[in-house]
Amino acid sequence: MRNTPTNFAMSLVALFSLTAFNLPFSKGAQAQAYPSKTVRWLIPSSPGGAFDIMTRGLAPAVSEQMGQTFFVDNIGGAGGNIALQTVARAEPDGYTILTAGTSQLVFNRFFYNDPGFDAMTDFKGVAQLGDLPIALWAYKSVPVTNFKELVAYMKANPGKLNYGSSGIGHLFHLGMAMLDDKIGIRAVHVPYKGVGPAVRDFLSGRLELIFSVAQRPVMAAWKAGDIRPLVGGTDRRLKQLPDVPTFNEEGIPGMDIPNWVGLVVPAAVPPEIVTRLNREVLKATESPVAVKTYQGMAMDVVKSTPEEFEEKYKREIRQWGPFIGKLGIKPQ
Predict the structure, then answer these.
(1) C-beta neighbour count of 243 within 10 angstroms
(2) Is 18 exposed, middle or buried (0-12, 13-18, 19+ CB in 10 A)?
(3) For residue 32, what pLDDT is reported?
(4) pLDDT, average across residues 80-95
């Protein structure tokens, strides 16, 4: 066919259409289409723990805002490592995301010989979602009413009391190890597959001590007289427990135990998807269900950019490494 001006013009239009709609804007089109299928939102613990409750409080609003199902999936075990391995190895397309906290992203690398991931390189931070300030609690069977009495009792009875955590290197385990290092009080560590089962066993009297946030079940047990808060684990008093002193006030400086929670994705997820997830998830923290959930968990809302959150957990990895090495806890 002869290349007439009309045919040449039609060819240019076809070429422009192909270029415009298939090449330069392909990434943008993919970002606009996200999410086009169900997003799997992993929790690194069993149902009933703080991360599980918080995520289930956020997921409905995120699903509504983004017009797609965000399916919450609990994968407990190995201190959360199994869930983090799953996300680290997932396709970097934004369809596998993870709620994780200080224990999983910062501390697990120091307590497991091979956790199966490297938080410094395998994840991209999406947002910090909140802070969960903790306190040390004792069951009513423990014959003490305050922290000083607990210290005296434990020194007189080394190894007699037990406490729970969601595994070796979990924040609650680290808190007791720090206390042992600073003032020489020892208790028997009972690891669980998640914080929820540990808290439930504590509230039923199977455990005698635990670090925990002042969430609704814990506060209800306190008001019922079954448990006692002895000392706060942050550098300021918990707003839910204004009469409970901090470690610093009890004469033990340097016991500010970080307990934050955030959202991460595989490291190679496109930045436009990360940015959208950040925007939508932080917006969801303002939904009525999320506000009620946060209040019930005694969680403080913290909003961050992806870059701020990622720098936060990487900085804490560098900061905590030397101290954890000093504790002498052997990896498993």
Answers:
(1) 7
(2) exposed
(3) 57
(4) 97
* pLDDT tens readout for residues 137-156: 999 999 999 999 999 999 99
CA distance 316 to 178: 16
pLDDT of residue 113: 86
- What is the third-level CATH fold of 29-132+259-327? D-Maltodextrin-Binding Protein; domain 2 (3.40.190)
Return all residues near 118 (Cβ < 8 A) that are at least 6 apart.
88, 109
Residue 214 φ then ψ, to 5° = -85, 55
d(CA 94, CA 195): 27
Percent of the chain predicted with pLDDT > 90: 64
Alpha carbon distance 123, 126 (integer Å): 9
Say which amino acid occupies 254.
Answer: G
Q: What are 120's two structure tokens?
A: 């410094």
- Mapped onto helix, strand or coil, the DSSP state of residue 122 is coil
Q: How far apart are CA 21 and CA 115, in angstroms?
A: 43
What is the layout of strands, in order, in the sheet containing 96-101?
70-74, 39-43, 96-101, 260-266, 123-131, 300-301
Contacts (Cβ under 8 Å, ≥6 apart) of 220:
none
Backbone φ and ψ of 310, nearest 5° = -65, -40
Beta-bridge partners for 74: 43
Cα 279 to Cα 126: distance, rounded to the nearest angstrom: 9
Residue 171 banded pLDDT, cuts 50, 70, 90: confident
* Amino acid occupying residue 230: L
Q: Where are the domains positioned within the chain?
A: 29-132+259-327, 134-232
Topology (CATH) of 134-232 = D-Maltodextrin-Binding Protein; domain 2 (3.40.190)
**186: number of Cβ within 10 Å:** 16
pTM of the model: 0.76
> Does this chain's domain 29-132+259-327 share its CATH topology with 134-232?
yes
When the pLDDT of each residue in the chain is averaged and rounded to a whole number, the result is 88
